[in-house]
Specification:
With 688 residues, this protein is an alpha+beta fold. The chain contains 15 helices and 33 strands. The protein has 4 domains: 168 residues, Cytochrome Bc1 Complex, Chain A, domain 1 (2-Layer Sandwich), CATH 3.30.830; 158 residues, 2-Layer Sandwich (Cytochrome Bc1 Complex, Chain A, domain 1); 125 residues, PH-domain like; 128 residues, Sandwich (Immunoglobulin-like). About 1% of the residues have low confidence.
Length: 688
């Protein structure tokens, strides 16, 4: 029989005594507390501290104690979920009583907790682990959802750890509820008077009838369910329906499990499936989800009645005190066995169907990365942050960087008030010249098919992770991620100042960078600078030698003219240039239009003093757009075409190819010209 007691300002639930094990003459005892702080109470800077604190408490409470019957030791379990920390002690009554006394001393600051000499171990796996995407769908991106996959072994400062211990203490206003199987194990814990339930750090979002990308392939769905017995039965029926459908669709046996956790005014249901043979396999989950969601509301009354009978049988059993204490802490409800039995007996098929309808309207499906969501549950994908009217400053990479997709691209980071944008751009001929091993497009990969731009709302920043001096990862409350490769950017000081100003101290997490990554970045930058310096030195030397030694005719006067598109122009040394077929093209990959034109260059006579002959050199770098007020750069090069490449021509030798020029304009500029210039002063424009 369950009984509730008030000891000081703390509620305690007393459950029935445990059975006497074979070979013993006394009942073992069980007791403990549930404290209202969990992973969701952490910050980005302190991720992992809740589980580190649990390890410390378990380590302290499992120390042997001297009793009347000798040295004894309680079996202690300390676990952390999103909103609470549970401390359970089990064993001989004297060992449990001694452990409770030590726990009270720790919570009241009268017992010093010792730090381990060895590093903290990795936290044990919890039911909420590996559900980050789903938790983010229901509660947004915050320390609670992030901790589902980002919960490292603690390696932070002891001061932060002891600050977390202080926050755990009931004297600081943290809610606490006790449980025991023995009537004489109640202990008084100093705590102020307070009402339950306590405020929850997580807030439900409207995510029903949507899908998210599954955190792991085993995840099937999550759902928001009402509290109460009818919802427990309805959730059990949903898990059964999913199991039947998975077996029917895949033809293989699966273990389908459902986990219910009360959060604020509702209960979170998490359902996952693992093939019975072990490992991770294809559930055929897309079709299975459609079939199961269609079959679930139409379950026969006989199936619901059978589930009700099972629930009534379970209600007769003793519920562990820890579950009753958790329910009291989170919902404020003091439940006892007689009430649970009465509620179970009063349940009707109609009440269960009502709960089923509520669950069915609040299901968030988990779909694979390459899986198409079912039409009834479209993808819950945050829209990019609007940048209209924001004054953005551009910061460009000086070397190609690897994207999350494995592709190599140049990056343009644009930052302004409250927003950061990352735009991947194709590698250029310049990259291929100086870093061919990094700029090469992998076999079978279309270099034009780069991911879309990423945006982060700095005004709603959830966290920032600095990986040494190499990378910064930003994530906002909608789960939009963005990476900044500091070492690859040209003059990033202004960007760093903006990011620093937007980051609060609790939002910043430092992690060490991979030594290999940092060394590779710095070596690439060093080699690139050296290669460019050598290249420019060679060009300068050739120019000097050409001026001193170059034979041939004297340099002629520059040619300056404007001609129609398609007309041939002869330069002073007899070289000819023809530009024709100007057209503008756009692509979804690049945000700006690109001008393409066909160019033919024929070499003329060598001029004296000109070892390097710009008039006889065919290069797209001599061409640009004229009569246009916009930034231009080498543009997109559609596949299947021949492009003008750098080549020095003999007298009478000709070459031709396309040139491609991108302009930072919203629409093609019909009045733009193609303009040719060189260092000898030639300046020619071809008009459309």
């Amino acid at each position: 029989m369950d009984m509730w007691h008030r000891v000081g300002n703390v509620d305690w639930v007393q459950t029935a005594q445990l059975a006497i094990p074979p070979g013993h003459t006394t009942h073992p005892a069980a007791a403990g507390v549930v404290i209202g702080r969990g992973r969701a109470h952490q910050s980005m800077a302190t991720l992992g501290v809740a589980d580190a604190l649990a390890y410390l408490l378990q380590r302290e409470l499992t120390r042997p104690v001297e009793t009347d019957t000798g040295v004894q030791q309680a079996d202690v379990q300390v676990s952390v979920n999103l909103v609470a920390t549970t401390i359970s002690l089990f064993g001989e009554r004297q060992a449990v009583a001694a452990g409770l006394s030590r726990l009270v001393a720790i919570l009241e600051g009268d017992h010093e907790v010792e730090l381990p000499e060895t590093p903290f171990p990795a936290p044990p796996l919890q039911a909420m682990d590996n559900w980050r995407q789903e938790l983010q769908g229901w509660f947004g991106c915050n320390p609670g959802s992030l901790s589902s996959t980002m919960n490292p072994a603690w390696d932070g400062s002891p001061e932060v750890l002891f600050d977390a211990l202080d926050a755990l203490r009931p004297t600081q206003g943290t809610a606490i509820v006790g449980f025991t199987s023995e009537p004489d194990l109640f202990v008084e814990i100093s705590a102020p008077e307070r009402e339950l339930p306590q405020p929850c750090p997580l807030h439900w979002r409207a995510a029903g009838d949507r899908s998210v990308r599954a955190t792991t392939p085993e995840n099937l769905l999550s759902a928001r369910t009402p509290t109460g017995a009818a919802s427990i039965v309805a959730a059990h029926l949903l898990v059964q329906a999913l199991h039947r459908t998975l077996v029917a669709v895949s033809g293989a046996s699966h273990e389908v499990t459902g986990h219910l956790t009360p959060i604020d005014d509702s209960t979170l249901l998490l359902v996952r499936a693992v093939p019975s043979s072990g490992g991770v396999g294809d559930h055929g989950s897309g079709r299975a989800m459609e079939d199961a969601l269609a079959a679930y509301p139409a379950l026969a009354d006989s199936v619901i009645e059978q589930a009700l009978a099972q629930h009534r049988a379970v209600a007769q059993e003793q519920i562990p005190g820890v579950h009753l204490a958790m329910t009291r802490l989170i919902t404020g409800e003091r439940t006892v066995g007689a009430l649970r039995v009465a509620e179970a007996e009063a349940l009707t098929i109609a009440a269960v169907r009502e709960a089923m309808a509520s669950i069915n309207a609040n299901i968030l499906l988990s779909v694979g990365m390459d899986e198409v969501p079912v039409p009834s549950h479209p993808l819950l994908d945050p829209a990019p942050v609007p940048t209209d009217g924001v004054d953005l400053t551009s910061f460009r990479s000086v070397i190609p960087v690897a994207l999350a997709t494995g592709q190599l691209a140049n990056l343009e980071i644009l930052a302004g008030s409250g927003v950061v944008v990352s735009r991947p751009r194709p590698v250029t001929w310049f990259d291929r010249m100086f870093e061919p091993q990094y700029a090469r497009t992998p076999k079978g990969q279309n270099k034009e098919e780069l991911p879309p731009e990423s945006t982060v709302d700095l005004g709603r920043l959830a966290g920032r992770i600095d990986q040494g001096p190499v990378f910064t990862l930003l994530v906002d409350e909608e789960g939009r991620w963005l990476s900044i490769p500091w070492l690859a950017l040209r003059r990033p000081e202004g960007l760093r100042t903006l990011i620093d100003a937007a980051t609060g101290p609790d939002q910043l997490r430092h992690t060490p960078a991979s030594d290999g990554h940092e060394r590779a970045f710095r070596e690439r930058l060093r080699r690139r600078r050296w290669s460019i310096a050598v290249f420019l030195s060679v060009i300068a030397l050739l120019l000097i030698l050409g001026l001193l030694l170059g034979p041939g005719r004297a340099k002629s006067a520059p040619t300056v003219t404007v001609v129609p598109m398609g007309q041939t122009v002869t330069l002073g040394n007899g070289a000819t240039l023809t530009v024709s077929d100007l057209e503008w093209r756009t692509t979804d990959v690049l945000p700006h239009p690109t001008a393409l034109a066909r160019v033919e260059v024929c070499g003329g006579q060598v001029e004296r003093g000109g070892g390097f002959n710009p008039r006889n050199y065919a290069s797209d770098s001599y061409f640009d757009l004229g009569r246009i007020d916009a930034v231009t750069r080498p543009g997109w090069q559609p596949a299947g075409e021949t492009y003008l490449r750098g080549a020095e021509l003999e007298s009478g030798q000709c070459t031709q190819g396309l040139i491609s020029i991108e302009a930072e304009v919203a629409q093609p500029v019909e009045t733009a010209t193609i303009r040719y210039t060189n260092r000898l002063g030639d300046d020619i424009e071809w008009t459309p």
